[in-house]
Design goal:
The complex is a heterodimer of chains A (149) and B (427). Chain A is of the alpha+beta class. Chain A has one helix and twelve strands; from the N terminus they run αββββββββββββ. Chain A has two domains: 30 residues; 111 residues, Sandwich (Tumour Suppressor Smad4). Chain B has a domain of 133 residues. Chain B is globular and about 65 Å long.
C-alpha cells in the first residue's frame, strides 16, 4: 500500500518537472542558425517601384532591407514558396548563392544579373565569384554583398 | 527545480525499495549509491548551469532517465536471484553511471575548449575507422544469435554511433565547390561522397546483421541529406532508393519478414504456430495493458521467460506494465524534452558544429523512436534500448558522449554570441 503514495509522489514530481522544463526550453527557442553569420546581403531599390525587400523567414515573412548569411547554400529569388531568400521584384529571377568564408559563388538560374558592368544570363554551370562590397544588379534591385555581420 | 528533482528521485527510490522485490543488501546499497551519485550530478549542474537553460534542461532530462534506469536495474536483480548465477544489475548500473559521468566530463572539456575534433585528419581517421570496425567485426568477431555485434567486447552499435556524427559533419560541412555534372542543380560532390560513405556503412551493417545500427544510421543520414540537399529531384531519387531498400529488407530479411507477418496476422496466430513465441512478446503487452490500471501491475510482475531482454530492448514494456502507463508516458515526455533540448536553437559556431549537433540529436531521437516503436509491437525489431533507462554500458556511455558534444558546442556558441554582442555594443 505504501508504494502507491510513493508512486503518486513520483507522478506529481515528474509532471511538475516536465511543465517546468517545457517552459524553460521555450524561453531558449531562438532562430536556428547554420553557424555564424559571415556575410551580409543588403538590398536597395534602383527604380521607383515598391516592395523590394529580402525575406529569410519561411512562415510569416517579414520583409527586410538586410539579410545575414551563414556558411552554406541558398536560393535567392522571387518565388515566395521555394526560395530561401525572397527578393520581391517584378520580373522573375532565381540565383544560387554558395556562401563561403572568403567569397560567395553566385549562379544565375533564372533571369539575368549585372555585375561590374558585365551582364550574366542563366547558366547553371557558371559560378561567378563575389567578393566583399561587390554589387549585383538584379532587375530593379541592387544587392550589396558585405563580409561580416 | 533541484528540490523537485530530489523529490522525484526520493519517491522513485522508495517506490522501488518498498515494492517487495527480493534483493541482497549489496544490491540495495548499490542502487542507493547510484541515486546519490545522480543527485550529486544534478546538484553540481544546478549551480554550474545557472543561466544556461538549455544545458540544464538537457542534463536534468538525462538524469531523470538514468534514475528510471537505476530503478529498472534494481528490479532486474529480482530475476537473477531466482537463478543460480547471481549478478547484481544495480552494481553494473552504478559502474555505468560513474563511467558515463567521466566520459561526459572529458568529452565536454574537449569540445568546449579545443578544436581537435574539427581537424581534418582526426575526422578522416574516424571516417575510415567506422567501416573498418564493421568489416573487422564480421571477419574476426564472434557470432551471437546470427549477428556480429561486438568489436573486442564493445558493441559496434555504440562504437559506430559515437564516431558517425564526426564523419557526417566532415562530409556535409565541406565547401560546395564542385558538382557531379558541373551544374549547381546536380548533387554537390561532398553530398555524393557522403551518400557513398553511408552506403558502405549500410553494407557493413548488413554483413554484420546489425539492423538496429542500420536503422539509426539510415534515419539520421536521411534527415541530414534532406536538410543539406538543395535539389528536389535528388531528394526524390534518394527517397525512391530508400523505399526500394526498405522493401527489399522486408522481403529478404527473415526476422523482419516474421515480424511483419505477426503484425498483419496478430489475431490469427495460435499457440501451435511456430511464430507463437515471438507473437507473444507483442500480444503480451496489449493483453496486459488494460489490466495495468492507474498504478501498474507492480514491479517484478512480468515473466522474464517472455521478455529475456526486459532491462534492455524491452525497457518501455517494463515501464508500461510494471511501473504503469502514466509513468511510461511521463518518461517518454522527458525523452522528447531531452531531444528538444538537443535541437532547440543551438547557437553553433560553424557549419561543422551545427551538423555535428544536429546529428547527435537525430541519433538520440531515432533511438527513442525505434525503441518505442519496437516495444509497441511495430514491424521494427531492432533490439535498441531506451536511452539511459535500458542497461548497456557501451551504449549509455556513447549517449553521454553525444550529450556532452551538444553541451560543449552549445556553450562555446553561446559564449561567442555574447562576446560578439559586447563588441557590437562597444563599437
Amino acid at each position: 500500500m505504501k508504494t502507491v503514495y510513493f508512486q503518486l509522489a513520483a507522478f506529481l514530481f515528474l509532471v511538475i518537472i516536465i511543465v517546468f522544463l517545457y517552459f524553460y526550453l521555450r524561453k531558449e527557442d531562438g532562430e536556428e542558425k547554420m553557424g555564424k553569420d559571415i556575410w551580409t546581403l543588403r538590398c536597395q531599390r534602383i527604380e521607383p517601384t515598391s516592395g523590394i525587400r529580402l525575406s529569410r523567414m519561411l512562415l510569416f515573412r517579414r520583409y527586410l532591407d538586410e539579410a545575414s548569411l551563414p556558411e552554406g547554400s541558398f536560393y535567392l529569388g522571387s518565388n515566395v514558396l521555394l526560395d530561401d531568400i525572397v527578393l520581391n521584384t517584378k520580373k522573375s529571377i532565381r540565383l544560387y548563392l554558395n556562401v563561403m568564408p572568403d567569397k560567395v559563388l553566385l549562379t544565375v538560374l533564372k533571369g539575368r544579373v549585372k555585375i561590374n558592368g558585365y551582364v550574366y544570363y542563366k547558366d547553371q554551370n557558371r559560378q561567378i565569384i563575389i567578393r566583399d562590397h561587390m554589387e549585383v544588379f538584379a532587375n530593379e534591385a541592387k544587392l550589396i554583398f558585405r563580409k561580416g555581420r | 527545480m533541484l528540490l523537485l528533482y530530489f523529490g522525484f528521485a526520493a519517491a522513485v527510490a522508495c517506490w522501488t525499495l518498498y515494492s517487495g522485490l527480493t534483493a541482497t543488501a549489496e544490491m540495495k546499497s548499490f542502487y542507493l549509491l547510484t541515486v546519490l551519485v545522480l543527485l550529486a550530478a544534478e546538484t553540481v549542474m544546478t549551480f554550474a548551469g545557472r543561466k544556461k537553460k538549455n544545458l540544464y534542461s538537457c542534463g536534468t532530462a538525462a538524469l531523470i532517465l538514468a534514475n528510471a534506469g537505476a530503478s529498472l536495474a534494481y528490479r532486474m536483480n529480482q530475476v537473477e536471484t531466482e537463478t543460480v548465477d547471481e549478478v547484481s544489475h544495480s552494481k553494473q548500473y552504478f559502474e555505468d553511471v560513474i563511467l558515463m559521468l567521466i566520459v561526459f566530463g572529458l568529452v565536454y572539456v574537449t569540445v568546449r575548449f579545443t578544436r581537435i575534433y574539427q581537424l581534418k585528419i582526426v575526422n578522416l581517421i574516424i571516417a575510415a575507422a567506422l567501416p573498418a570496425v564493421l568489416f573487422i567485426t564480421r571477419i574476426s568477431g564472434e557470432e551471437s544469435n546470427g549477428a556480429y555485434i561486438s568489436f573486442f567486447g564493445i558493441l559496434i552499435f555504440a562504437v559506430v554511433l559515437a564516431g558517425y556524427p564526426f564523419a557526417a559533419a566532415f562530409f556535409l560541412a565541406r565547401e560546395e565547390s564542385r558538382y557531379l555534372h558541373g551544374s549547381v542543380r546536380s548533387m554537390p560532390l561532398n553530398l555524393a561522397l557522403f551518400l557513398g560513405y553511408i552506403f558502405i556503412l549500410y553494407a557493413g551493417c548488413v554483413i554484420c546483421n546489425e539492423f538496429g545500427l542500420l536503422l539509426v544510421v539510415g534515419i539520421t543520414s536521411t534527415m541530414l541529406f534532406y536538410i543539406r540537399s538543395r535539389n528536389f529531384g535528388t531528394k526524390l531519387l534518394y527517397t525512391a532508393a530508400c523505399g526500394v531498400g526498405v522493401l527489399l529488407s522486408g522481403i529478404m530479411i527473415g526476422h523482419i519478414q516474421e515480424r511483419i507477418y505477426i503484425w498483419i496476422h496478430l489475431s490469427e496466430i495460435t499457440p501451435e504456430d511456430p511464430l507463437a513465441g515471438k507473437a507473444e512478446s507483442v500480444l503480451y503487452v496489449f493483453r496486459n495493458l488494460p489490466r495495468t490500471g492507474f498504478w501498474g501491475n507492480g514491479l517484478g510482475s512480468i515473466p522474464v521467460s517472455i521478455y529475456p531482454t526486459l532491462n534492455t530492448d524491452h525497457a518501455f514494456v517494463a515501464l508500461m506494465l510494471e511501473y504503469s502507463l502514466v509513468f511510461a508516458t511521463l518518461i517518454l515526455l522527458i525523452g522528447i524534452l531531452y531531444v528538444k533540448a538537443l535541437l532547440a536553437g543551438c547557437p553553433a559556431d560553424s557549419l561543422y558544429d551545427y551538423i555535428l549537433n544536429l546529428c547527435c540529436a537525430l541519433i538520440i531521437g531515432s533511438i527513442i523512436l525505434i525503441h518505442i516503436g519496437s516495444n509497441l509491437g511495430s514491424s521494427i525489431t531492432a533490439g535498441i534500448g531506451m536511452p539511459f533507462v535500458s542497461e548497456g554500458s557501451a551504449v549509455n556511455i556513447m549517449l553521454a558522449a553525444l550529450t556532452a558534444v551538444h553541451c560543449g558546442i552549445y556553450e562555446r556558441g553561446r559564449r561567442h554570441a555574447l562576446s560578439e554582442e559586447k563588441t557590437v555594443y562597444a563599437n
